[in-house]
Every structure is written in C-alpha cells, then in structure tokens.
Write a structure and sequence with these properties.
69% helix; 5 helices; single chain; mainly alpha
C-alpha cells in the first residue's frame, strides 16, 4: 500500500476542501447578479460549483439590507457611543464651570 492510499477510504473521498476569501466571493456574486453569464458559466470560469455560487448569492442578498440599516449589534453600539459622548460633553461643561469658579476665587484671594 502506498502513502496516498488509506485503509477503507476510496481515493475520491480524500478531496481537500477549498476555501475562498470574501473578496473572491463578492466578485463572483456581483458577476452573478449582473446576469451577463449563467451560473454554470461562472462556475466553470471560477472553478466553483454552481450550487456554491447560488448559495453565496442568496446569502449576499439576504444580508444586503444590513448594509443600509446596520445590524442590531451595530445599532446598540452606536447608541452606547452616543450616550457616552453626551455624558462626556456634560462632564466637560461641568468642569469648565468649576474651572471658572476656581479662577475667580483664586483671583479674589490674589493667588493667581
């Protein structure tokens, strides 16, 4: 038995799973959305199974609304950041009033 053979597993079951980066997936999906080529033609062109392109396309379209609305997590984070900003602006205002008060009193006492 050679190194490439395994006990009990046919040769074709040892295929290595391909992984594609996000930029590649977007490129393929955008081409699929243009509909200038069929899914089968795109699959042949990019070496991807047609079902995979269809799945990417469905996923892309189902999540496309989030581009404009933002996800719930992003909205919560944005609201938290706004609250923090408002709190800090208020705190800065209070500190400015305190500084002015201290300056006046130090000038009255001739310490400034």
């Amino acid at each position: 038995m050679t190194k490439s053979q395994s006990v009990g597993l046919p040769e074709e079951s040892k295929r290595i799973r391909k992984s594609f980066d996000d930029a590649f997936k977007v490129k393929v999906v955008l081409e699929a959305l243009k509909e200038t080529m069929t899914i089968a033609e795109l699959a042949s062109k990019y070496g991807v199974h047609p079902n995979q392109i269809s799945n990417w396309k469905k996923h892309f379209l189902s999540r496309s609304v989030e581009v404009f609305s933002g996800s719930g997590r992003e909205r919560e984070e944005l609201e938290t950041l706004r609250r923090d900003r408002d709190r800090l602006v208020h705190q800065i205002g209070e500190q400015a009033v305190d500084i002015d008060f201290l300056k006046k009193n130090l000038q009255k006492l001739n310490l400034l």
